[in-house]
Protein: DNA-directed RNA polymerases I, II, and III subunit RPABC4
Organism: Rhinopithecus bieti
Amino acid sequence: SDTQEDIQPPKQQLMIYICGECHAENEIKSRDPVRCRECGYRIIFKKRTERLVGFDAQRNLGIQRNVFTYI
């Protein structure tokens, strides 16, 4: 049986957001307030990933096309 010491809370993942006002990068965890640390603005945007993302799309003609794009 598990004891309290065996159960680990999930890791808080750090995400990078861009401020909508001053464009500063902010590292925000899931429980942190949504606010720019530089200017205090409350509208922030998630930073785009630089990894390759693939999408499978099918047309109505039954032809399968693979589309890969950097976002």
About this structure: The domain at 15-70 is CATH 2.20.28.30 (Rubrerythrin, domain 2). The chain has no helices and five strands.
